Amino acid sequence: MADLVSERDFSEFEFRTVPCERVTAEDRALMLALFDACFRQADHAHLEKSLERLRYVSLALHDGKPAGFGLADSRVVDLPRLPGQTVILGGLCCVAPEFRRRGLFGELERRSVMASEPPASGRRLACGRMAHPGAFRGLTRNPTVVPKPGIRPTPWQQEVGRAIADVYGVHAFDPETFVCIGAGTPGGYPIIELEAEPEEWEVFRPVDRDRGDSLLGIAWSPDAPPGW
Prior knowledge:
Layout: E1 14-19, H1 25-38, E2 39-40, H2 44-53, E3 56-62, E4 65-79, E5 82-95, H3 104-115, E6 124-130, H4 133-140, H5 155-168, E7 172-174, E8 179-181, E9 189-190, H6 198-201, E10 214-221
Parallel strand pairs: 5-6
Antiparallel strand pairs: 1-3, 2-9, 3-4, 4-5, 6-10, 7-8, 8-10
């Protein structure tokens, strides 16, 4: 998940952040075109559902051409044993191939999170659903991340994972693997050039993309609650 402070120069891009409920037909067409450029067999219904579940989307243009978009949200959620917890929800993010590896993915999500007015300080739970280890790396750098290869989530972690899956409105959730189980049709297959090590794929082994699965990842910032 993106940090809440940007450390890069994105002056070459033109950004716009809008509430998902106010997305125009032109905005939607831009996002669908980028979705199709980033995923094979991109399921447009998945994007529509994301626009209903999350509150903000940020769009980026480069010389008037679509460069990327990212959905995200920040809200206060009553989690198991953690009432009134600030939760950052990462959503679908697509960056045109020619603009990748510039930090644009994180910047788009950061802007969407900031638009939802998260608290300036305090413990936050960052969450996201991933289809490829490359998208999971940002969370795996955090020692509090769940899931971890070869480590069964604790009962509390499983309870929190299920609660977050409910917020995302997933079809079904496996708390043992943190797999968000799809409804039976693929959401799309990411077109990505990043290499992944075998150990990075381990937590993705139960993910069935043909079924529309994704992997839920969660991690705390700046630290985990006692007993996590």
